[in-house]
Specification:
Strand order of the largest sheet: 2-1-3-4-14-13
CATH superfamily: Class I glutamine amidotransferase (GATase) domain
Mean pLDDT: 97
Bound molecules: glutamine
Number of domains: 1
Distance between the termini: 43 Å
Radius of gyration: 17 Å
CATH architecture: 3-Layer(aba) Sandwich
CATH topology: Rossmann fold
C-alpha cells in the first residue's frame, strides 16, 4: 500500500515540533510495510494537492502566518478540489485558523482565511493567550478517545459548528471555552501541539486510516507496540489531573 503526504509550509509553520507529527506517521507506516512518501510544499511552489492522500499544515507565530496567507488563499480552488477528491486534511493551530474566514492577530492585523469553513479567529487582549497542557475527549467517527497536547495561541476561534472534542483540562478554541478543534469527517483542525501524534498513537492511526481510505477504502491497520507512547500519554493525563 502507498500513502502520499503533502506537508505544506514545512519551513515556515513548525511550532513546538509540529514536524514530529510527520516523523510519527512515517514510522508507523514503515513499521507496517506501508510505502509512505512525505513531499513538502513551500510558498510559491507548484503542487497539485488532490494528488495526495493527506495534506498537513502545522502551526506558526503571527509573523510566519503573515508571510504565507496570500499564497495559501491563492490555492483555494486546489484545496477544494483535494477535499472533493477525498484527500484527508490535518491542521494544527495556525493552519487550522486559516481554513476559517479570517485571523486577526495580536497587532490587530486581519489576515484573510480560505473561508472553507464558517469559523473565524481573533486575538482578544482582554482574555489573553491560551497557554498550557490540554486534554480533550474526542469522538472520531464514533470512536471516543482521549487526546493530550499543548496549546499556545492568542487567537480565539468562534463559530465552530463541528468541534473535535470537549475540553477536560485547558482551553481549546476559546479561553476556557469548553470545546476544542474542528472535525467534519475529512478535515481535522486542532490547537494541540506537543506535537500531537507522538503521545496520541490512536490519533496517528486514525489519520493513517482516513488517508488510506482515499485509494483503498476501509483498511485495518496491524497493531503496533504502543506501550511507550501510552505511558507518555498517561504521564500527561496524570500531570493535568494534579497527580
Ligand atoms: N499565531 C497564532 C495565534 O497565536 C497561532 C499560534 C500557533 O500556531 N500556536 O493564535
Amino acid at each position: 500500500m502507498k500513502l502520499n503526504v503533502l506537508w505544506m509550509y514545512h519551513d515556515v509553520m513548525d511550532l513546538y515540533g509540529d514536524r514530529g507529527n510527520m516523523q510519527v506517521l512515517k514510522k508507523r507506516c514503515l513499521d507496517r510495510g506501508i510505502d509512505i512518501t512525505i513531499d513538502t510544499c513551500g510558498i510559491g511552489q507548484e503542487k497539485t494537492i488532490k494528488d495526495y492522500d493527506l495534506l498537513f499544515i502545522g502551526g506558526g507565530a503571527d509573523r510566519e502566518q503573515g508571510l504565507l496567507y496570500d499564497d495559501l488563499v491563492s490555492r483555494k480552488q486546489d484545496i477544494m478540489d483535494a477535499i472533493d477528491a477525498k484527500t484527508f486534511v490535518l491542521l494544527i493551530c495556525g493552519g487550522y485558523q486559516f481554513f476559517g474566514q479570517y485571523y486577526i492577530d495580536n497587532n490587530n492585523n486581519q489576515m484573510e482565511g480560505l473561508g472553507i469553513f464558517n469559523y473565524y479567529t481573533a486575538s482578544d487582549a482582554k482574555v489573553g493567550r491560551c497557554i498550557g497542557n490540554i486534554e480533550i475527549e474526542a469522538t472520531l467517527d464514533g470512536q471516543t478517545i482521549n487526546i493530550v497536547g499543548f496549546e499556545n495561541h492568542g487567537g480565539q476561534t468562534r463559530g465552530v459548528n463541528h468541534p473535535l472534542g470537549k475540553v477536560i483540562h485547558g482551553h481549546g478554541n476559546e479561553y476556557q471555552g469548553g470545546y476544542e478543534g474542528f472535525y467534519n469527517g475529512q478535515v481535522l483542525g486542532t490547537y494541540m501541539h506537543g506535537p500531537l501524534l507522538p503521545k496520541n498513537p490512536q490519533v496517528a492511526d486514525f489519520i493513517i486510516t482516513k488517508a488510506l481510505a482515499k485509494r483503498y477504502g476501509e483498511v485495518q491497520l496491524a497493531p503496533l507496540d504502543d506501550s511507550l507512547e501510552n505511558r507518555a500519554h498517561e504521564v500527561m493525563q496524570k500531570r493535568m489531573a494534579g497527580g
